[in-house]
Amino acid sequence: MIYKITYQETKLRNPKREETQSLYIESDTEIEARSLVETNTPFNIEFIQPIDGSHLEYEQKSPDFKLTEFAK
Hints:
Family: Belongs to the RNA polymerase subunit epsilon family.
Number of domains: 1
GO molecular function, one term: DNA binding
Structural class: alpha+beta
Function: A non-essential component of RNA polymerase (RNAP).
CATH topology: Ubiquitin-like (UB roll)
Mean pLDDT: 94
Number of helices: 2
EC number: 2.7.7.6
Shape: globular
CATH superfamily: RNAP, epsilon subunit-like
InterPro entries: RpoY
Number of strands: 4
Radius of gyration: 12 Å
């Protein structure tokens, strides 16, 4: 399953909507996706959303779509 994770780059500042970024990760579960991001980045995770079907097709059309890979 592919998950879209929205996040702030740091946990030290208050979140600002204008600074929200996203990444895409392939994982078996939402819990595993969260764990991979928390272990490998300093990001403040805001939301994790599973995407598939037409939503995935739409996201893949974006030039910013790229699967992020972390060592498990």
